Amino acid sequence: MLHMNRSLYLVAYDVCNPRRLYKVCRYLKCYRVGGQKSVFELWITPAELRTIRADLDKLMDAQEDRLHVLSLDPRMKPRCYGKASTFTAQYFCIT
């Protein structure tokens, strides 16, 4: 039951500087299970969340950039529209 301590988060960012934007996007793509452009779904542990927050604090400029990390309620049924789909795998490997 390794997945039990994982939670789904929605991460949205707005980075002003193109160089920082590239670094933040590239960093978050390592953790994402879904999303597009500057909004990603992350299925992560509390320890991974702490690491991500600390790393993004270093990559972003608090005076110019914005970051929202929202915990998604696991009791809510996902409602997807159009081509959208939600993450459903219980186990996965990021390579």
Structure explained in plain terms:
The chain is an alpha+beta fold. It has a domain at 18-71. The protein is 27% helix and 26% strand. It is built from two helices and four strands; from the N terminus they run E-H-E-E-H-E. The chain has helices at residues 18-29, 46-59; strands at residues 7-14, 32-36, 39-44, 66-71. The chain has a four-stranded antiparallel sheet. The protein starts with 6 loop residues before the first strand and ends in a 24-residue tail after the last strand. Keywords: Antiviral defense, Endonuclease, Hydrolase, Magnesium, Metal-binding, Nuclease. Its cofactor is Mg(2+). Mg(2+) binds at residue 14.
Could you tell me the number of beta strands? 4
Our measurement of the CA-to-CA distance between the termini, rounded to an integer number of angstroms, reads 21 Å
For the CA atoms, what is the radius of gyration?
Answer: 14 Å
How would you sum up the global shape?
A: globular
Low-confidence stretches: none
Mean pLDDT: 84
Properties at a glance:
alpha+beta; 2 helices; 4 strands; 95 residues; single chain; globular; four-stranded antiparallel beta sheet
Structure described in brief:
This protein is an alpha+beta fold.
What's the structural blueprint in terms of helices and strands?
Elements: E1 7-14, H1 18-29, E2 32-36, E3 39-44, H2 46-59, E4 66-71
Antiparallel strand pairs: 1-3, 1-4, 2-3
EC number: 3.1.-.-
Protein name: CRISPR-associated endoribonuclease Cas2
Enzyme class: hydrolase
